[in-house]
Structure formats: structure tokens, C-alpha cells
Amino acid sequence: MNADLLCGSLAEPSRLRTYSAVVLGARTPGEIADATGLHAGVVGKAAQRLIRAGLLTASAEGLTAVEDVFKDAVRSGRPEREPLDPDPSRDAVLRAFIRDGRLTGFPTFPAKTRIVLEYLVNSFEPGRDYPEAEVNAILNTWHEDHAALRRDLVDFQLLTRTDGIYTRT
């Protein structure tokens, strides 16, 4: 079930209250009516609709909520994520620090810092000279602390600096 169908199934207040009562332990239409204050006929229609939608199951013990549909709906609605690096271990590091094309924080371990910086340095063409203002503008697209990024790129020898001109090594 996708998220739209899931939300649509619970959009009606009587269905939402019915489902909630079952999640909280009500098993019969009478128990649901008592817990929700809904008329028994309304509970019956809501329960039938929720069973057809796959949110409830009916058995001899009564109604049971199917709770995995929420996880399944979220998973089915996610677009396939393009890895940031073909190496799964490097990709995991990059995913931890890069969201929506922005650096969310700075790694504390040098090995992880190097992986992130090696990814960011791809924003620069090899062999091309960049004035400091242009380097700052490029690094600002990644994180507002462009000075720290610039310094780290030089310290990790991924960029060289000569007289205010930077070059990717």
C-alpha cells in the first residue's frame, strides 16, 4: 500500500478512531464503539473499509491492526537513492554528513574527514586556478563555514594555495 492509499484509508475520522481503538486493544465492534463513542453501525462500516484496505484483519479472536503497512508505505514511496560513492563504506560516511547536496556537519575522525573532503574537492576542476573568492563561493554551496572547508582542503593537500590562488591537486 502506498502512502496516499494509507492516508486516504484513515482520512475519515470514524475509520481513524476505529483503527486507533483496535491498536489500543479493542477487538470487537462493541469494544470499539465503547472506546470511541461511535455508533455500532458506523464502527461496522469503518471496520469493513479498513479490512478491505489491509489495515485490519478479522479472526475468531476479533479484529487486529496490521501495523507493518506504515513501514511498507514509507519504503515503497522512497525514491531509489543514488549512491554518493561506489564503495559502500565510503558511501555510508558521505551519507552521514551530506544531505540534499549540503554538508550537515564536520567529521571528527581524520579518515572520515578525508573521505568527505575528497568528495567535495570534485567541485573543482583539476589544473584550473581559482581565486579565493570563487573557492569561497563554491564551498558556500556545501556549508556556510567555507573558511574551515578551504583550510581543510589545503591541509589535506587536496587543494594547493599560492598567493591567494587555489588549484586542485
Output the keywords.
169 residues; alpha+beta; Arc Repressor Mutant, subunit A; 2 domains; three-stranded antiparallel sheet; two-stranded antiparallel ribbon; 9 helices; 7 strands; 14% strand
The name CATH uses for the topology of the largest domain is Arc Repressor Mutant, subunit A
Gap between N and C termini, in Å? 50 Å
Numbering strands along the chain, what is their spatial order in the largest sheet? 5-7-6
**Average of pLDDT:** 94
Largest sheet: 3 strands, antiparallel
Number of helices: 9
CATH class of the largest domain: Mainly Alpha
Residues in β-strands, percent: 5-15%
- Indicate how many domains the architecture comprises: 2
Radius of gyration, whole Å? 27 Å
Shape: rod-shaped
Q: Class by helix and strand content?
A: alpha+beta
Considering DSSP H and I runs of 4 or more, what fraction of the residues is helical? 40-55%
Order of helices and strands: HHHHEEHHEEHEHHEE
Number of strands: 7
Going by CATH, the architecture of the largest domain would be: Orthogonal Bundle
* Unreliable runs: none
Describe, in plain words, how this protein is organized in 3D.
- This protein is of the alpha+beta class and 169 residues long.
- It folds into two domains: 3-76, Arc Repressor Mutant, subunit A (Orthogonal Bundle), CATH 1.10.10; 88-168, Arc Repressor Mutant, subunit A (Orthogonal Bundle).
- Helices cover 54% and strands 14% of the residues.
- The protein has nine helices and seven strands; from the N terminus they run ααααββααββαβααββ.
- It has helices at 3-10, 13-23, 29-36, 40-53, 68-77, 88-97, 110-120, 132-140, 146-155, and strands at residues 56-59, 62-65, 98-99, 102-103, 129-131, 159-162, 165-168.
- The protein has a three-stranded antiparallel sheet with strand order 5-7-6. The protein has a two-stranded antiparallel ribbon with strand order 1-2.
- A hairpin with a 2-residue loop joins β1 (56-59) and β2.
- α2 (13-23) crosses α4 (40-53).
- The longest helix is centred in the N-terminal third of the chain and has 14 residues, at 40-53.
- The chain starts with a helix and ends with a strand.
